[in-house]
Design the sequence.
């Protein structure tokens, strides 16, 4: 009897334990879903590729960069466009910032270290973008499409999405190659427990080139895709960018290939707008006529694509001092960003130039910058305005978030690149065509032909300055200065090198350091870029 | 003939005598009238003894004449009754536990104080801090070595932060595990405030791992056992009513420039005086008021033969010292004990129910009052923004200017309503079939519903732009089921008392929140948040009390948590400890001065799994909100984000403890010293992951810490007599915490400790070899008078650039030593007591000064219309031209000594009713060198904390 009792007890005990094991298997009951549940709705693919695009525009899954993708830094600070802009503009003569956020001042001062949290966040963000694209590709293989019984019409869309995912991935590898030199590399189907291997600059160039050439045919034709999505023209632009900068990345120039790709872009039907230059950076720049030259944009909306980075940052941060926020369609400026005297001097007549691309605000501002931390030191720039052409403010009535779409690539950029590639000796184009292109840009800027140039004036120094006048604050400057050899060891501007009148800096700063956090996590990235 | 006859008669009687000598019987009762089971009845000076049975009856044989019969029972005064030939001796024992015989709680059980082998301390009601206490934790501040209590802020309803031997974890939950009447509370939301402090009988704090190992799965930060009061059986009806009335005042304001000093500064700096106003406003004075608090407590207890009931009602109402802040709470406690089956089955039902209303005042007013221009008047003459003066630009309120502090307070209507019910049924059953076997089971539920809203007036500076309403509701529920078998047996051959325990427990937790907030000026539903987790434990313990000299104890538990994947779900923890009880040895008994001596030592391993992430190992997808959508064509597409998964496992802590308990001069002086050494590995902390995955950072098991300390406590009965008693007690703890490993191959330091001033700035750093609260700063350069040179820092790496590579580790916030001192004096009916507590060795970062005390902050350049911003007087000492957030000038010594409470009370004993009147002062004196408002800052970053209060409390208590 006693033995029976013990057996019964043991049995009950075991029963209790297996029940306990079940009790410990808990699944989320809120809006987080597992893969199997998610793909019961085939429209999910559109949502995931949207995340790949959103990665460039917003910082997280909620408005205002809430539920951020990147940790370790403020949500708005982690915004891709904002970080990329900081890397490309704050380090140059085009922009200088007054704030005390962490080590942000070190960017303009060329004294950044490998512990700089903005450089760290940029590295994280670029690689995060690549991971999202890889994840999309892994979830949209034929095997997966079959597993989830995706209907044929969605499959056709998914094929386009896959090409765009590979494009966005190559685009971020291009940024990584441009900023950091080497990058951790992962392709679809990677083993998450193995640390990524590393590709150096030349290997990245080869990968990006081969990727883009491989998917060229699968991308939607130029100007045929939904507004905001990348198409063949965006792809040609990325190719022409890497070709134009090829000597920096690989040591070998590829100017002819650049011209080949640029010709495709230029003949795709884009036109320089007949509306004023300022319209290209207004809240309604997707429909006020400026959109005729936009090749690829990152789109923002005051109600639906809300972020404190992106064009919201570019609209609020440069407003301060005596500037009137109502003119910018916002509730108040953040008093941060102005420009250096050297940039002001690129415009003949400086703040009184006939060139309408000059938008300096000078009331209460001084041209020179005695103190970096004082917004009134340095002329302000009034480029991005959250107003419609009729003067009304953007859709966000609170005045925080803006509607301005950010042009990543536009026709004017292609024209200037064409001229540069020709001047640098590439074949497939000629200087007279280049002169025509540039004069189209200049006529828009001046409103008449008074600013037109002749082929004799088109040389490399002119082109560098013209790119600044036309494309300032559009995230090109650092790359341009590096290509022209003027980012570090030659050319000075206010506070370069943390010295008031500026000084040249060491050439190792042409590349950003691999963040020390990353070297710590992934020893494959050793050794650190030279000089850091 | 007669003599022979007498001798024969005597001979006949001899056997009768012999027979009468042998047997003594009787019944032994406890003071409540119930039979005492297991009491010892013995002949003094011999080994002739027996125990009483279930009915309290005993039979003692071979009792010699002139014997003295000794009746002894744990928890009761030993009685000695001379044997004069009776056949029956009955007696009722009186409860009078000697200190060492006190029953003390341990995890899942109890033992006697003298048999404790681990580091633990019990604080009883008489030792609690006095005052109008709202939050239970405040009762033990400064009382226990190794327990660091940082006083609650002045915010009504706030509780103190309690840390037991801090330093075991970096990223996981640092709170101890609270167990109330056997129910472990949800560590993330212990909600101690729902317990009426007047209902608490004692706290037992289990400090070392051998004590807590049985709670293995949540016990790395110590365990606090809270016992609520229960009525005794067979007791008279007792009624009690207590009322306390407190008046509170903010203890200190931040030292900022007055209106005239500010005007002088503007003139000295050559700035435009037309931007100033014409008033003289002390903004801090305007936002604070004298607060008041009233606490009522009504208790009733009655014990019948098999039932005892205690009910208590409490009511608290507080008006906080910050305008518009307040707290109201009603509590109901009901404890019922019922015995069945002649005491074999004891049911205890305990419950605490509370209804709380917390009126939130806008805490932003505290910082705004420090920086608002003192020359501006409070009100405008336009009536806009509710009548309060506000800075504006062409679009409305100037976003880069401070808001009017009174405008902030009076435009916010925000409240949190909490209903809490904690119910537990405990059943203890003596299993008759096996002597010494007992089963105890618990079924409990802790349910909390909360409802909060926050509405900002549109007609105000802060609300004019809209997006100013939010609502949130939800509930938390924690259910417990546990059971254990206890088997006590005396192994006579080994002269050992054995106590075995085997049991298991299941607990599950749910949190659900829903809410709505205004986005784009319309009310939008927030996504529903649901978090579930469950814990299962199986535990066992064996204790052996050998020859009343050596106690050995070992426990083991097997724990499973739903937070981890199946491979990592289960973990085993264990503890062993031993004690050498030298108190009853000849050495101690004959020493003349020693009255108590016990040596203790132990080792234990515990685990931690309480992180805010419940499904880290599952790959899930998170949908995006409509405001983070992407434009495709003319459509806004909401995004779906794939999340990374990471397989986490238990964080484990190994702890060694050694201690000594001493008593001198018949326990006039008692004390103990404990030393502990602790290593935590597989630390659960949030850290970076290598780039290339779906997360750049996540909770992970990476890193380890080391901590050690010495705790000492002493209690001296200076005067001990019938009319006058005076006891002094003190405790001091010395501690050291060090990080020994971090994530990644090179253990790269991690920046922590966010501060105000810019965005994303951190002032502290985790690095291997340092305390986790170490500051990371620039070394300021000072001139020969000791004044800092503006913007001049030491170029520590000699590269002629000042950048983050020049920051160095400097000082830390954690104190080296913290201590408490209590004096209790009593003369007839008069009581006088006070408690001092303090700490030394830590530093604070004065963020209030670093953020605002510089000319760049006083004269901002990002507002459309020029404004001036006030600053702490520190700006006149440093003359910093802009924020120097990382200067070591702002790292200031935070040593302090506080008079936590001092209380005078008088008892008026009466026939029908005892009355007790008291007056208490709380937080009256603070001695410190620190410049800021209050040196006691948890974490070391002083950033406009809600100031603490100084209070005067009048109390009246009635006992019928």
Sequence:
């Amino acid at each position: 009897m006693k033995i029976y009792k013990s057996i019964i007890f043991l049995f009950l005990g075991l029963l209790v334990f297996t029940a306990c094991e079940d009790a410990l298997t808990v699944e989320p009951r809120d809006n987080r879903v597992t893969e199997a549940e998610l793909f019961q709705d085939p429209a999910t693919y559109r949502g995931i590729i949207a995340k790949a695009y959103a990665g460039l525009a917003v910082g997280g899954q909620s408005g205002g960069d809430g539920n951020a993708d990147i940790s370790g830094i403020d949500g708005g600070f982690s915004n891709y466009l904002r970080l990329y802009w900081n890397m490309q503009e704050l380090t140059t003569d085009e922009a200088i910032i007054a704030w005390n956020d962490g080590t942000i001042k070190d960017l303009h001062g060329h004294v950044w270290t490998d512990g700089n949290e903005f450089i760290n966040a940029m590295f994280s963000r670029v690689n995060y973008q690549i991971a999202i694209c890889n994840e999309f590709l892994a979830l949209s293989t034929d095997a997966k499409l079959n597993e989830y019984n995706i209907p044929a019409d969605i499959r056709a869309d998914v094929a386009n999405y896959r090409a765009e995912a590979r494009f966005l991935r190559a685009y971020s590898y291009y940024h990584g190659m441009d900023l950091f030199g080497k990058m951790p590399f992962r392709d679809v189907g990677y083993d998450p427990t193995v640390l990524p291997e590393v590709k150096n600059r030349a290997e990245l160039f080869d990968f990006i080139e081969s990727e883009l050439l491989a998917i060229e045919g699968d991308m939607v034709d130029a100007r045929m895709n939904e507004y905001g999505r990348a198409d063949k023209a965006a792809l040609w632009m990325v190719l022409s960018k890497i070709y134009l900068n090829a000597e920096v990345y690989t040591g070998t120039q590829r100017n002819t290939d650049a011209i080949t790709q640029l010709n495709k872009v230029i003949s795709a039907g884009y036109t320089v707008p007949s509306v004023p230059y300022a319209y290209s950076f207004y809240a309604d720049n997707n429909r006020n006529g400026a959109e005729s030259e936009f090749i690829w944009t990152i789109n923002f909306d005051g109600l639906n694509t809300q972020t404190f980075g992106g064009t919201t940052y570019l609209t609020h941060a440069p407003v301060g001092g005596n500037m009137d926020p109502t003119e910018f369609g916002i509730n108040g400026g953040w008093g941060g960003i102005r420009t250096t005297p050297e940039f002001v001097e690129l415009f003949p007549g400086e703040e009184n130039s006939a060139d309408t691309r000059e938008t300096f605000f000078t009331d209460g501002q001084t041209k020179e910058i005695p103190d970096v931390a004082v917004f009134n030191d340095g002329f302000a720039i009034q480029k991005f305005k959250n107003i419609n052409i009729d003067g009304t403010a953007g859709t966000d009535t609170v005045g925080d978030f803006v509607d301005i779409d950010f042009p990543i690539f536009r026709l004017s950029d292609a024209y200037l690149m064409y001229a540069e590639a020709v001047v640098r000796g590439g074949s497939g184009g000629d200087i007279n065509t280049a002169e025509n292109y540039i004069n189209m840009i200049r006529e828009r800027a001046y409103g008449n032909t008074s600013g037109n140039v002749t082929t004799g004036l088109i040389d490399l120094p002119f082109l560098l300055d013209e790119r600044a006048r036309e494309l300032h604050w559009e995230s090109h400057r650092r790359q341009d200065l590096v290509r022209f050899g003027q980012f570090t060891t030659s050319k000075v501007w206010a506070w370069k090198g943390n010295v008031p009148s500026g000084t040249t800096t060491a050439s190792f700063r042409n590349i950003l350091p691999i963040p020390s956090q990353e070297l710590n996590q992934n020893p494959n990235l050793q050794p650190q870029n030279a000089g850091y | 003939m007669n003599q022979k006859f007498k001798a024969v008669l005597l001979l006949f009687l001899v056997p009768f005598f012999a027979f009468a000598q042998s047997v003594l019987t009787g019944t032994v009762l406890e003071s409540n009238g119930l039979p005492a089971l297991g009491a010892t009845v013995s002949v003094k000076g011999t080994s002739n003894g027996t125990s009483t049975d279930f009915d309290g009856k005993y039979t003692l044989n071979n009792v010699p004449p002139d014997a003295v019969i000794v009746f002894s029972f744990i928890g009761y005064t030993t009685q000695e009754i001379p044997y004069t030939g009776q056949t029956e001796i009955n007696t009722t024992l009186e409860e009078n536990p000697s200190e060492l015989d006190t029953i003390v709680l341990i995890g899942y059980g109890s033992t006697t104080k003298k048999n404790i082998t681990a580091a633990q301390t019990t604080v009883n009601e008489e030792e609690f801090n006095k005052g109008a206490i709202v939050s239970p934790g405040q009762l033990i501040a400064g009382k226990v070595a190794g327990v660091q209590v940082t006083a609650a802020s002045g915010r009504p309803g706030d509780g103190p932060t309690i840390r037991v031997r801090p330093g075991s974890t970096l990223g996981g939950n640092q709170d101890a595990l609270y167990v109330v009447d056997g129910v472990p509370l949800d560590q993330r939301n212990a909600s101690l405030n729902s317990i009426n402090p007047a209902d608490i009988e004692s706290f037992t704090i289990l400090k070392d791992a051998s004590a807590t190992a049985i709670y293995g799965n949540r016990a790395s930060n110590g365990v606090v056992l809270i016992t609520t009061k229960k009525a005794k059986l067979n007791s008279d009806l007792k009624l009690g009513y207590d009322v306390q009335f407190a008046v509170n005042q903010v203890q200190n304001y931040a030292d900022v420039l007055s209106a005239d000093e500010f005007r002088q500064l503007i003139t000295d700096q050559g700035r435009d005086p037309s931007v100033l106003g014409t008033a003289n406003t002390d903004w801090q004075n305007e936002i604070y008021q004298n607060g008041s608090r009233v606490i009522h407590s009504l208790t009733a207890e009655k014990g019948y033969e098999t039932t005892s009931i205690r009910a208590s009602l409490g009511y608290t109402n507080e008006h906080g010292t910050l305008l518009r802040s307040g707290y109201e709470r009603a509590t109901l406690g009901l404890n019922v004990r019922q015995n069945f089956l002649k005491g074999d089955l004891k049911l205890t039902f305990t419950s605490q129910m509370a209804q709380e209303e917390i009126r939130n005042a806008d805490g932003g007013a505290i910082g705004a009052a420090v920086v608002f221009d003192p020359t501006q008047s409070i009100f405008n003459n336009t009536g806009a923004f509710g009548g309060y003066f506000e800075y504006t630009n062409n679009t409305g309120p100037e976003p880069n200017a401070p808001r009017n502090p009174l405008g902030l307070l009076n435009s916010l209507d925000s409240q949190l309503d909490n209903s809490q019910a904690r119910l537990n049924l405990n059943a203890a059953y003596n299993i008759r079939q096996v002597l010494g076997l007992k089963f105890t089971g618990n079924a409990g539920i802790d349910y909390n519903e909360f409802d909060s809203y926050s509405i900002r007036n549109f007609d105000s500076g802060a609300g004019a732009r809209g997006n100013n309403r939010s609502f949130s509701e939800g509930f938390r529920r924690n259910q417990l089921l546990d059971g254990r078998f206890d088997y006590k047996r005396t192994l006579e051959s080994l002269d050992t008392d054995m106590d075995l325990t085997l049991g298991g427990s299941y607990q599950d937790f749910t949190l659900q929140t829903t809410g709505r907030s205004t986005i784009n000026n319309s009310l939008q539903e927030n996504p529903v948040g649901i978090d579930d987790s469950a814990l299962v434990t199986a535990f066992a313990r064996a204790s052996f009390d050998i020859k009343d000299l050596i106690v050995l104890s070992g426990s083991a538990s097997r724990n499973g948590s739903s937070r981890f994947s199946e491979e990592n779900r289960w973990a085993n923890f264990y503890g062993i400890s031993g004690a050498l009880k030298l108190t009853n040895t000849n050495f101690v008994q004959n020493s003349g001065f020693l009255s108590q001596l016990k040596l203790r030592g132990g080792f234990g391993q515990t685990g931690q799994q309480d992180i805010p992430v419940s499904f880290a190992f599952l790959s899930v997808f998170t949908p995006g909100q409509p405001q983070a959508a992407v434009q495709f064509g003319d459509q806004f597409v909401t995004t779906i984000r794939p999340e990374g998964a990471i397989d986490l496992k238990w964080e484990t802590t190994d702890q060694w403890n050694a201690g000594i308990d001493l008593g001198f001069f018949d326990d006039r002086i008692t004390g103990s010293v404990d030393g502990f050494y602790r290593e935590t590995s597989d630390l659960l902390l949030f850290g970076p992951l290598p780039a290339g995955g779906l997360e750049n950072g996540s909770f992970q098991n990476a890193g380890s810490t080391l901590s050690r300390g010495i705790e000492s406590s002493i209690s001296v009965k200076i005067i001990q007599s019938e009319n006058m008693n005076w006891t002094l007690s003190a405790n001091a703890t010395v501690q050291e915490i060090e990080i020994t490993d971090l994530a990644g191959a090179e253990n790269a330091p991690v920046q922590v400790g966010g501060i105000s001033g810019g965005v994303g700035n951190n002032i502290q750093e985790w690095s291997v070899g340092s305390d986790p609260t170490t500051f990371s700063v620039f070394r300021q350069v000072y001139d020969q008078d000791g004044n800092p040179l503006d913007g001049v820092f030491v170029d520590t790496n000699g590269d002629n650039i000042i950048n983050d590579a020049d920051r160095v580790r400097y000082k830390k916030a954690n104190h080296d030593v913290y201590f408490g001192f209590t004096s209790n004096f009593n003369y007839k009916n008069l009581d006088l007591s006070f408690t001092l507590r303090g700490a030394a060795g830590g530093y604070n970062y004065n963020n209030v000064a670093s953020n605002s005390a510089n000319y760049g902050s006083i004269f901002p350049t990002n507002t459309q219309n020029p404004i001036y911003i006030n600053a702490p007087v520190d700006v006149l000492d440093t003359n910093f031209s802009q924020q120097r957030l990382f200067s070591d000038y702002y790292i200031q010594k935070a040593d302090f000594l506080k008079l936590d409470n001092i209380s005078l009370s008088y008892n008026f004993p009466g026939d029908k009713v005892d009355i007790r009147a008291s007056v208490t002062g709380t937080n009256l004196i603070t001695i410190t060198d620190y410049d800021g408002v209050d040196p006691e800052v948890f974490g070391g970053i002083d950033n406009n904390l809600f100031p603490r209060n100084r209070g005067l409390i009048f109390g009246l208590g009635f006992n019928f």
About this structure: The first strand of chain A starts at residue 33 and ends at 34. The radius of gyration of chain A is 26 Å.
